[in-house]
Write a structure and sequence with these properties.
about 775 residues, mainly alpha, four-stranded antiparallel beta sheet, two-stranded antiparallel ribbon, DNA-binding transcription factor activity, RNA polymerase II-specific, XnlR_reg_dom
């Protein structure tokens, strides 16, 4: 039996050694394997042998301060162990050998390897140092005086490096490990001096949807590029050691003032500490708003970063890799794209590193996203030919989601698309306790996701921006995914939405906003994009329901006026009907097998009894439930006003008949759910939507009046109670195989066990029927 986790590898903890990047105008050295004339050593001797200038260590071993053990050709032993590209692109550095026994050397060792006193000939003397347009003097002085001794190196003794370069201010980067962010080097930079750097894959495949602070690369994980190295990089999300933030219309930087600046051929204006990228100028033919992004070096946020940030993120990465091996990880990624991505398309596969089979390499996926992907894919292991036999020892989904959350935190100072994607996946996570409502933490996470989206400019339409196609597509999908999650969570929790339609300016999605693989048919005549496209259009209607009927101001104005409420709700009800009429056949609500065919049910035909369709998971259940929930919310608003006059009573009677029909519809929907729907992907807000149905049916009964126009004045109340009891019975059956229904059942059970007549003030009709049934 295969194991989910890979065997842990014993890593030796070695203090980092920062390699200065290549000068922009310096020729790139040709990678040459070291010559083979070092003194032979036994395998057990791990001390570094003398190496001539022709047999210098590779870049990664130089960074790790480790011996470079190379047999005949790259990669060396250390690069193979860490799965790094073995390169020799850095020029050999020169350093004056100090006398190890001198007092000055001993003092340097006590201060972390550098003299804390300023000296004229010392490369790190405390003087005004300016590099890459950044004044790093305060950070440098704090580093020299306060940096703790190097981290211990168990089981390895390595002498000081012999190729320590003389200090060059032009190559200076933030030296303190306490202050530097965890940044991977981007190999998508357009810097001329770095274009010839060896890479394991072509540039088109190595650009993936995250900032370089989390990219998987071939050089040390937290080695940063110079600030100017990504000048001209088309992607806003591939800015090496920098991050791009939207310039707001009313903030400290005025876009209309920036529109008067001179921009270079890369649409950038450079300052000492920041670059401004122009996406859309003021004098554009389309009349769009002036749009600019501020690109700043991550070092500017070093004071706000938590200490030992790099080590913490490395630890999270190791924990994820220990829980899920590489081969199993690939299978989980495939499951995610098959069973989750069609219904929540927040990822992009076209710019991630792919293996020979076209599957995403887990090593190229940021830690936070990777853990969230694994957590969402675990429920579908039974649909994989190998993982179906490994279900006895699966990793913990709770632990994976916890690591995804923790890995996000250090990145909040320099947010990226990767952080937003992870936050949305965390919000989409199904509840851990099936009997308890969501805690406020999910709403808080949604708040953070919206804030990150606005910081990254996701709320602006990038269709005409000079960005790579994959980034335009991803930004537009993320904008709508954020909008959908926020609106439905606002409805579920009864909170005010974080998103104002006036400040969310992204046009509706089309098929061209999805990757080709996502546009493939998931069933007969049903595109993989259909679910999310129609969910977005439905959410637009729900957004207006929330603002027009459930905002504080609207509720105060409408709660006593049935006529005004109906005037507001009527056009929204018409739009819901039109939305359902335009659904493709594959998305129509299936007919419940327990219902006889009738003209009323003919609008919802049975799905074709195809063998392939009957044995495939169908994740459209959450969309059907969302549509019914939207109608329930309309009737909840229309039933709020209390009407005393006869004319109003007639209108209320018609409304209650319509509400009863919606109640029957949700009951039929639950009765018709089969295993292929229950086992598929459900949006996280679906559980609360089921619970809303329970609350709606309960309120429909307890508020039931007597019916004066009918010979049986309790007829309507009796129908409401029958519907409520049938709903409770259906939940008892279906909740055994779907934990999304447990909370809806628990809410009703609590009321009935406590005593409906004692707990709730019943209407006249409800009180009579409850007494007939022997209730108390």
């Amino acid at each position: 039996m295969h194991s989910f986790g890979s065997a842990p590898m014993q890593h030796q903890h070695i203090p980092p050694y920062h390699i200065p990047p290549t000068l922009p105008n310096a020729p790139t050295p040709i990678p040459v394997p070291p010559a083979q004339h070092a003194r032979p050593q036994p395998d057990t001797d791990r001390a570094r042998a003398y190496k001539s200038r022709n047999k210098r260590p590779c870049d990664f071993c130089r960074y790790k301060k480790a011996a470079c053990h190379l047999d005949n050709q790259p990669p060396c032993e250390l690069c193979s162990r860490y799965n790094k590209e073995c390169t020799f692109v850095e020029s050999p550095a020169k350093r004056r050998r100090p006398n190890d026994t001198s007092p000055e050397t001993q003092r340097q060792k006590q201060n972390g390897g550098h003299d804390a006193k300023p000296q004229d000939n010392h490369p790190f003397a405390n003087g005004p140092i300016v590099a890459d347009g950044l004044d790093m003097q305060p950070e440098l002085m704090g580093w020299e005086g306060n940096m703790p001794p190097p981290y211990p190196m168990p089981q390895m003794s390595i002498p000081p490096p012999v190729d320590f370069a003389a200090y060059d201010p032009a190559l200076y980067r933030e030296p303190s490990m306490q202050f530097e962010p965890f940044n991977h080097m981007s190999n998508s930079t357009t810097d001329p001096a770095l274009e010839n750097m060896p890479a394991p894959i072509p540039k088109a495949q190595s650009s993936f949807d995250t900032t370089p602070s989390q990219q998987s690369v071939t050089l040390p994980l937290h080695l940063q590029l110079p600030f100017e190295s990504t000048t001209g990089e088309a992607s806003l999300d591939h800015q090496a050691s920098s991050n791009a933030q939207m310039v707001g219309l009313s903030g400290e930087s005025d876009p209309y003032l920036l529109s008067r600046y001179h921009f270079d051929r890369h649409n950038e204006a450079s300052f000492q500490r920041i670059r401004v990228r122009q996406m859309c100028g003021l004098d554009n033919a389309q009349g769009d708003l002036p749009t600019y992004f501020a690109i700043q070096h991550n070092a500017m946020t070093s004071k706000a970063q938590p200490p030992e940030r790099w080590e913490v993120l490395e630890q999270y990465r190791r924990e994820v890799e220990d829980m899920v091996g590489n081969d199993v990880g690939k299978r989980l990624i495939v499951l995610f794209y098959k069973f989750v991505q069609p219904y929540f398309p927040v990822l992009s596969r076209s710019h991630w590193q792919l293996d020979e089979n076209g599957i995403c390499e887990p090593s190229s996926v940021p830690t936070c996203i990777l853990a969230a992907i694994y957590g969402h894919a675990l429920p579908f292991c039974a649909w994989d030919e190998r993982l179906c036999v490994d279900v006895y020892t699966p990793p913990s989904a709770d632990a994976l989601f916890r690591l995804a959350w923790l890995a996000c935190q250090p990145e909040l100072h320099t947010p990226s698309l990767a952080v937003l994607q992870t936050m949305l996946l965390l919000v989409q996570r199904r509840p851990t306790n099936k009997h308890v409502s969501d805690t406020p933490f999910k709403w808080i996470m949604m708040t953070s996701a919206v804030a990150i989206a606005q910081t990254l400019g996701i709320n602006r339409d990038p269709s005409k921006w000079p960005l790579p196609i994959w980034e335009v597509q991803l930004r537009r999908r993320l904008a709508w995914a954020t909008f959908v999650q926020d609106k439905w969570l606002a409805l579920n929790s009864g909170r005010s939405s974080h998103i104002s339609p006036d400040d969310w300016d992204v046009s509706p999605l089309t098929d061209y906003d999805f990757e080709e693989a996502d546009r493939a048919l998931v069933s007969d005549n049903l595109s993989g994009t259909a679910h999310f496209l129609h969910l977005c259009s439905l959410t637009l209607i729900v957004s207006e329901i929330l603002s027009d009927l459930f905002s504080l101001r609207a509720t105060r104005q409408l709660q006593h006026s049935l006529e005004a409420t109906i005037d507001v709700a009527k056009p929204l009800r018409i739009r819901l009907t039109e939305w359902h009429a335009h659904l493709p056949p594959g998305l129509k609500l299936p007919l419940s097998p327990s219902l006889p065919a009738s003209p009323e049910n003919s609008a919802r035909p049975l799905k074709p009894p195809l063998h392939s369709a009957l044995h495939q998971l169908d994740g459209n259940g959450s969309l059907h439930l969302a549509f019914i929930t939207a109608k329930i919310e309309l009737f909840r608003a229309m039933l709020r006003p209390r009407v005393e006059d006869a004319n109003g009573a007639t209108a209320v009677q018609a409304l209650r008949a319509g509400a009863l029909a919606v109640g029957r519809e949700v009951l039929e929907f639950v009765d018709g759910l089969s295993a292929r729907e229950l086992e598929a992907f459900w949006a996280s807000y679906s559980r609360t939507n089921f619970t809303l149905a329970s609350s709606f049916l309960l309120h429909l009964f307890v508020s039931a009046p007597t019916t004066l126009s009918s010979p049986d004045k309790f007829q309507h109340a009796r129908e409401c109670l029958d519907l409520l009891e049938n709903w409770r019975a259906a939940l008892r059956v279906k909740s055994r195989s779907c934990d999304l229904l447990n909370l809806a059942l628990l809410k009703l059970d609590g009321v009935f066990v406590r005593g409906l007549g004692e707990l709730v003030v019943l209407g006249e009709g409800a009180r009579g029927v409850w007494a007939e049934r022997g209730g108390s």
